[in-house]
Design a protein that fits this description.
Blueprint (H helix, E strand, L loop, with lengths): L38 E2 L5 E3 L2 E2 H8 L3 E5 H18 L1 H4 L2 E6 L6 H9 L3 E4 L2 H9 L7 E3 L6 H10 L3 E4 L2 H13 L4 E8 L21 E2 L4 H10 L4 E7 L10 H21 L5 E3 L17 H19 L5 E4 L3 H4 L3 E14 L5 E7 L8 H5 L6 E2 L8 E7 L8 E9 L7 E5 L20 E5 L2 E6 L4 H6 L4
Parallel strand pairs: 4-20, 5-6, 5-13, 6-7, 7-8, 8-9, 9-10, 9-11, 11-12, 12-13, 15-17
Antiparallel strand pairs: 1-2, 2-3, 4-14, 14-15, 14-19, 16-19, 17-18, 20-21
Length: about 475
């Protein structure tokens, strides 16, 4: 690959994206991007849960993930109620498994348990958090394309209601673990239905060429059904499908549901077994910027219910009890990350252009999604109101990487400077859970805010924590 002279014409993404408009008021909070209690107070500073960000920064430091507890719980209940109502007549309701990979901690698991949701774990660690938080084991399921023997054993011993069979090798391992403990273990079979979701390739999970599930087209899923039914230690509860993440309509679910229900009907014909459940996964999108327009839980529920009912009617089968797995759609909008601004730098580009870089005291260690998925985020000046016209800016972190970008493009007031507080909304999902200690930067705390008070859910890491792992 040849080198070339650097310049504005060679800078990918130079200039604002087409969807980003110059705001009439750069202080305004864009509806849909923020949690329910986020607003600007009388003095212009952002507040959440009745507490201003300056007070939160003084007490908890920056960067910090600030979680609107009332918003989180309201979103969880909205999914619970919307899907239960939409599927009430068809199959007696629906079950909502919160996808712990989005973000979990013991307090979150306790909220979910109290609010009547279930819990979807992908690893032994996520399972441990759910159990510690008081989630009833029968309302938990364990995913994973490479579950260890120890994870399977713990799930069986704890009495998890469902273990998802992701490959043929899972079947005997789960059955043997159940036989050794004298129990019958409920399982689901994850089916790869051949749907190419319109999302980033790294988070599209139902096309054929990827690591998850058993192929429908290739006959692997049907073979797995026969193998599970041949093991009396296993109770086949149903089939499972997941098409990806950041999905904004029900068209992908329509194709996936129809295909997996065809297999469901084939199980009845060929084995005389009526599977009581069908898990359609999650992946419901949220708004990170003004270009995103997610559906409400009620719209999703009604749309998916119509799809499932029609497919079952066409196949002349009863509607199985439906379950879904939202994570991002509950956790994502409930949280924003609060940073403090350090260096502000205007960089001259060849051809007369300029780009403003606003550096904050976090970065890719607390939000890797921009670097990993080319994700878009928004930002606002949080500690005060500004009357200065907006300037196209790029919010970057403190790490030794040119790809350490938090917000690629945002119009921020032109007087943003060192010491200002900056807030990035929509960071409740896959930010703390994917956070790292890159450059030996300790991970931020997760702070819940509600009714004028804050409390730490996950404490800030310290340099002592980093050094404690170093046995050298």
């Amino acid at each position: 690959m040849r080198a070339h002279v650097a310049g504005a014409l060679h800078a990918e993404g130079y200039g604002p994206p087409s969807w980003l408009a110059v705001p009439e008021d750069p202080n305004a909070l864009v509806p849909g991007l923020w949690s329910a209690t986020a607003r600007r107070g009388a003095q212009g500073a952002l507040e959440v849960g009745g507490v201003g960000v300056e007070a939160l920064a003084a007490e908890h430091g920056t960067p910090a993930y600030l979680l609107d507890e009332a918003d989180f719980r309201a979103r969880a209940v909205a999914f619970r109620d919307a899907f239960d109502e939409a599927f009430a007549d068809a199959c007696g309701g629906a079950d909502v498994y919160y996808a712990a990979k989005a973000f979990t901690c013991t307090a979150v698991a306790r909220w979910l348990a109290e609010d009547g949701l279930s819990y979807d774990a992908c690893t032994g660690g996520e399972m441990a958090v759910g159990l510690r938080g008081g989630m009833p084991a029968e309302r938990m399921l364990l995913h994973g394309n490479n579950k260890s023997d120890a994870e399977i054993a713990r799930a069986v011993e704890a009495g998890l209601g469902r273990i998802v069979i992701d490959g043929m090798g899972d079947i005997d391992r789960v059955a043997d673990a159940a036989a050794a403990r004298g129990v019958r273990q409920g399982v689901l079979i994850r089916v790869t239905v051949g749907v190419e979701a319109h999302t980033h390739s790294y988070i599209a999970t139902a096309h054929e060429d990827q690591k998850f599930g058993l192929s429908l087209a290739g006959g692997d899923a049907a073979a797995a059904v026969a193998a599970v039914l041949a093991r009396p230690e296993l109770e086949l509860r149903g089939l499972h499908s997941h098409i990806g993440s950041q999905i904004f309509d029900v068209s992908g679910f329509e194709i996936a549901a129809r295909r997996v229900l065809e297999l469901h009907a084939a199980v009845i014909r060929e084995h005389g077994v009526v599977l009581p459940e069908l898990d359609l996964g999650g992946g419901f999108g949220v708004a990170y910027t003004t270009q995103h327009d997610p559906m409400s839980p009620r719209e999703l529920a009604r749309g998916m219910a119509a799809v499932v009912v029609e497919a079952c009617r066409a196949l002349d089968i009863a509607v199985p009890r439906i379950s879904i797995e939202p994570g991002r759609a509950i956790a994502g909008p409930s949280t924003f990350t609060l940073y403090e601004v350090g260096t502000v730098k205007d960089v001259s580009l060849d051809g007369g252009g300029r780009r403003r870089y606003v550096s904050v005291d976090g970065g890719m260690s607390d939000n890797v999604r921009t670097a990993l998925y080319d994700a878009d985020y928004s930002a606002t000046l949080a500690g005060r109101r500004s009357q200065t016209p907006a300037v196209l800016s790029r919010v970057v972190g403190k790490h030794c990487e040119s790809g350490d970008v938090v917000v690629k493009d945002e119009y921020l007031p032109g007087d943003v400077g060192r010491g200002d507080l900056l807030a990035v909304p929509g960071t409740g999902a896959y930010c703390r859970s994917m956070a790292s200690q890159y450059n030996h930067v300790p991970r931020p705390p997760v702070v819940a805010v509600r009714d004028g008070a804050s409390r730490v859910l996950v404490r800030r890491e310290t340099e002592d924590d980093l050094l404690a792992l170093d046995v050298g």
